[in-house]
UniProtKB/TrEMBL annotation:
It comes from Halomonas ventosae. Keywords: Biotin, Fatty acid biosynthesis, Fatty acid metabolism, Lipid biosynthesis, Lipid metabolism. CDD domains: biotinyl_domain. It comes from the Bacteria. This is Biotin carboxyl carrier protein of acetyl-CoA carboxylase. Residues 86-104 have a biased composition (Low complexity). GO terms for molecular function: acetyl-CoA carboxylase activity. Residues 112-188 form the Lipoyl-binding domain. Residues 73-82 have a biased composition (Polar residues). GO terms for biological process: fatty acid biosynthetic process.
Amino acid sequence: MINRCLKTRYLAAIYCKLAGVDSTPEPPPNPTGRDNVMDIRKVKKLIELLEESNISEIEIQEGEESVRISRHPNGSTNWQTPMPQPYEAPAAAAPQAPAAEPAADAAPAYQGHTVNSPMVGTFYRSPAPGSKAFVEIGSSVKKGETICIVEAMKMMNQIEADRDGVIEAFLVEDGEPVEFDQPMLVIA
């Protein structure tokens, strides 16, 4: 009980100091006849002081009445997140090789039909780690035969040959991620 009284007196003293009111005289009589009603002029003065200072919240209690004034209602704040700046990669240095020479690193051009990934996922040549691959380069395949797996969201999706032919090349390594419509292998 003593701590509550001291806390109330302390808050009242702060309130009076902020409101610029002397704490010793009695407040003017209230026209409504209620005794413990906070003076609206004090509340307005507190609002002005709050706006002028860097205080974000103040709570005052007089008797049974209390008021809390805050810059941000319900404790919410309006934070603005800075937009990320686009990253511009530095320009690559020009190659020193003569222009007449063909590119040695160019991917070999395969003749035949490419089987593309129907979804984003991970390419696998075999049904399980360590087991035999569905097909090898040079294997003959029939339309509808399983040739690989694309794992997407822990689901193993069997990819079937969409035509008869011979596997000419794998364009993706086992366990490598693939994008939608990315060529995975070539059927000649």
